[in-house]
Design goal:
By secondary structure, the chain is an alpha/beta fold. The chain has two domains: 394 residues, Alkaline Phosphatase, subunit A (3-Layer(aba) Sandwich); 104 residues, Gyrase A, domain 2 (2-Layer Sandwich), CATH 3.30.1360.150. Helices cover 37% and strands 17% of the residues. It is built from 20 helices and 19 strands. Strands 1, 2, 5, 6, 7, 8, 9, 10, 17, 18 and 19 form an eleven-stranded mixed β-sheet that branches. A hairpin with a 4-residue loop joins strand 7 and strand 8. The structure holds zinc ion. The site of zinc ion has 5 residues, from helix 12. Zinc ion binds next to helix 12.
């Protein structure tokens, strides 16, 4: 009997030790740091197209060789623009629910135009600019990955967002972030707002005082590889349909940027140097704020904006875009090397995606007999007014036209006894005669519009009742809004909606997922990896195939 008791005590102790070990290993198995990387305007096909030119195995190829790649990740809403993309990635949600209905929008209740991260109640920190820092996530209506991480750890997790664009830093960092830092084109400083802090941390003030933008200008922009590579794989270096961000005479490589030293801090945005600035700050933040230093998971949300500025000016088939990605690959390889040393291999998880992709330059498409064209959605106002005039109607019946939306003045419609159906019918018939318009959709009835189900869903998901218009103008494939030269994005076609989704590191399998996944699946995949609640408005599903 005594032997039996002794034996059972032994067994119990072994079981208890085993359980404790499991608990310990489970605890330490969580990543100490999650790094989200958004490459602004990165098309999914760039990964494959530019693969032969990546020099390092540790940049983009690190995901392909060691991690998981989701090859059919789609954006499930329109408009496919920067603010909506960053919001969807980190909320797992869509404009209908998370409130981020565009980079800016006309607010039906406030009856004025609002910028996505505008906040009149906060002040700039780190620059003499009054306007550039009056920003916060106040317009975001749902929680983010970072917010849920904070809630799960009694706010012990640290969450920081960094980007050249204010919206690229603020929206991903969420409501409860420790900090968000963005670039101020007036001073050349990285700044924040009083939403986060009363002063910049010393390490950031010191970085700002070192004038890295000026030293980047002095380096200019030179090709990384022999020009024959670009000749063979891109459109010509000099095209009349490309923008000229560095002056009318700077038509091709190499770009001398000396003239901007100490004078113009906006030009850096449209160069690959912008990506170096963001990773410089990221490294400083990891070291000085001790991100990933203990077992409580931290989140660093990085957004590389320069690929978007470069893409808008030069297009996806340009020498500038190829060279920008070759240089971004080097930046990533260097950054991952830093993470291995600082946070430790196996202690962190990285995901990389894009906020939207981009259309070909319309003139490039035309040169190759592909469909496309340009229109100016501000000119739609002229057409809408012409329609109202032709029907002897008051021009004030329309309160705003912009971002492919027409907003009605419902108060005036009621007082003049003009019905919604009547106004919609006459405007739709008028606009649908224009050659670049596919269809005019009444936003509140988008679910029954005569369009394929997936397209209807994008319109429904993208329509926010407070911040959206009454009508949405759906353009034909390849039609680009605005931009006399260069190109843009924002619509429902696959060139704008097909984005990369790559993961590597702690908890991630080495695999390729070919089935369709969505931008809204990113947040629930990360929260599942971390074992925390998904963001409040998330409508996506975790991509189980990528998780160990
Ligand atoms: Zn853009």
């Amino acid at each position: 009997m005594r032997i039996l008791t002794l034996l059972s005590i032994c067994l119990f102790s072994i079981a208890a030790i085993a359980q404790k070990q499991t608990t310990n290993s489970e605890k330490s198995n969580k990543p100490k740091l999650v790094i989200g990387i958004v490459v602004d305007q990165m098309r999914w096909d760039y990964v494959n197209k530019f693969k032969p030119f990546f020099k390092s195995q540790n940049g983009f190829l690190h995901f392909i060789n060691q991690g998981a790649t989701c090859d059919n990740t789609m954006i499930p809403y329109v408009p496919t623009v920067t603010a909506c993309g960053h919001a969807s990635i980190y909320t797992g949600s869509v404009p209908a629910l998370n409130g981020i209905a565009g980079n800016d929008w006309y607010d039906n209740i406030l009856q004025k135009k609002v910028y996505c991260v505008d906040d009149p109640n906060v002040q700039t920190v780190g620059s003499p600019s009054v306007a550039n820092g009056k920003m916060s996530p106040v317009n975001l209506w749902t929680t983010t990955i970072g917010d849920e991480l904070k809630l799960a750890t009694n706010f012990k997790s640290k969450v920081i967002g960094i980007s050249l664009k204010d919206r690229g830093a603020i929206i991903p960092a969420g409501h409860t972030a420790n900090a968000a830092y963005w670039y101020d084109t007036l001073s050349g400083n990285f700044i924040t707002s009083t939403y986060y802090a009363k002063a910049l941390p010393n390490w950031l003030s010191n970085y700002n005082n070192e004038h890295h933008v000026d030293s980047s200008y002095r380096k200019g922009w030179n090709l990384s590889l022999s020009s024959s590579i670009y000749e063979e794989n891109c459109d010509g270096d000099e095209n009349i349909y490309e923008g000229k961000p560095f002056g009318e005479n700077a038509k091709h490589f190499p770009y001398n940027l000396n003239e901007f030293v100490g004078i113009n801090y906006a030009k850096i945005l449209t160069t690959p140097h912008g990506n170096n600035l963001v990773t410089d700050i990221a490294k400083q933040a990891i070291i000085n704020e001790q991100l990933g230093a203990d077992d409580i998971t931290d989140l660093l949300a990085l957004s590389f904006s320069s690929p978007d500025y470069i893409g808008h000016k030069f297009g996806p088939n340009s020498w500038e875009t190829l060279d920008g990605y070759i240089k971004l690959d080097e930046v990533l390889a260097n950054f991952f090397g830093f993470l291995d040393k600082q946070v430790g291999k196996g202690n962190y998880t990285v995901f990389l995606t894009a906020d939207h992709a981009v259309a070909n330059i319309p003139a490039y498409a035309k040169k190759h007999n592909l469909p496309g064209g340009r229109f100016d959605d501000k000119a739609i106002k002229v057409d809408v007014n012409a329609c109202l005039n032709a029907n002897n109607l008051n021009l004030k019946l329309i309160s705003y036209v912009g971002d492919n939306n027409v907003y009605y003045n419902h108060q005036l419609m009621d007082s003049l006894n003009i019905s919604n159906d009547y106004l919609t019918t006459i405007i739709s018939r008028y606009l649908e005669k224009l050659p670049f318009i596919l269809q005019v959709v009444e936003n509140r009835k988008a679910a029954v519009a005569p369009l394929p189900q997936s397209v209807r869903e994008k319109i429904v998901n993208g329509f926010n009742t407070q911040r959206g218009g009454d009508l949405m103008i759906v353009t034909k494939s390849g039609v680009v809004d605005g931009y006399p030269t260069g190109t843009s994005h924002g619509v429902l076609y696959n060139y704008d909606t097909h984005i990369p989704f790559l993961l590597v590191g702690n908890g991630i399998k080495h695999t390729t997922v070919n089935s369709q996944t969505y931008m809204t699946d990113i947040a629930p995949t990360i929260t599942t990896l971390l074992g925390i609640q998904m963001p409040s408005g998330s409508i996506g599903k975790p991509v189980q195939e990528v998780l160990k």
